[in-house]
Amino acid sequence: MKLLAASFACLLSAALLQAADKPNDKAARLEMARAGLKSADVEVRRRTLGSLNHSDLSDALIKEMLELLKDSDGEVRSMAATAVGTHGEAALPGVPALLAQMKGDSHKEARETAARALGRIGKSVNTNRDALEPLRHAAQKDTDPVTRVVALGALAMMEQDVAEQITALRQYLHHDEPLVRMKACHALGMLGTVAKTAAPEIVLVLPLETNPHRRGYIARSLGSTGDPESLPALYEALKKETDAGAKGEIRGAIGKLGGMLPE
């Protein structure tokens, strides 16, 4: 049974990753994705959600993705929150489920992604402020430091005491856990140049990170916060970097800051 589910999931991923410029295929891909989201097999639901990131199908599947906020699987709930968070007003019906997820989900990644989704929705629909107090509570009281970081970033995205949230996020740049430091960098980077004052501290995080995927996120945040004084650290990191993905992010940050890219 597991082998059949895995085979279906692989076929589904391949079908959904076909070029989106084939209108005759879109209806078939949409039905396949809808079936994947409703599958009884958790692995199929996970793979389907993952395949819908930046997909031309996701707008048409918002109802099904919102339903997965109440899935029995924590990873699916987490992925569903990420998926719906980019849909602005269309995601408003999911706010109550996202609030419940952030407040009490046993899967910590689901709390984290719910907080980020609430921030994105609140930024997009600035008339909805249902999440403010729950986000403030999560930023102070959640047992998971990553969720606290993401909640602070969400409040800043919603333009709530931005300077105060940036100050709080900067403290997490000095956290003992590398993942927490990276998430703080990411949250500050998402705020853009308003968080420029944090760049000198983000620079110090970059050489400490041993995971290339995280180094890429940290480099990207330096490009987004917009301080040209970060360039020497980025050039040094580029010299030492061996991972292609991280190199791409470092080069992107250098270009964004107006630096000359080495050949």
Describe this structure in words.
With 263 residues, this protein is mainly α. It has a domain at 176-263. 67% of the residues lie in helices and 0% in strands. It is built from 15 helices and no strands. It has helices spanning 2-16, 23-37, 42-51, 62-67, 74-84, 95-104, 108-124, 132-141, 145-157, 162-172, 178-191, 199-205, 212-225, 231-240, 244-256. The protein is globular and about 50 Å long. The model is unreliable at 1-5 (pLDDT under 50).
Question: Key features?
Answer:
67% helix; disordered N terminus; mainly alpha; single chain; 263 residues
Quaternary state of this entry equals: single chain
Provide mean pLDDT, rounded.
92
Rounded to an integer in angstroms, the radius of gyration calculated over CA atoms is 19 Å
Q: What is the number of strand segments?
A: 0
What overall form do the CA principal axes indicate? globular
Helix-strand category:
mainly alpha
Show unreliable segments: 1-5
What is the rounded distance between the termini?
A: 51 Å
Task: Bin the strand percentage.
Answer: under 5%
The ordered string of helix (H) and strand (E) elements is HHHHHHHHHHHHHHH
Fraction of residues in H or I helices: 55-70%
The biggest beta sheet reads: none
Number of continuous helical runs: 15
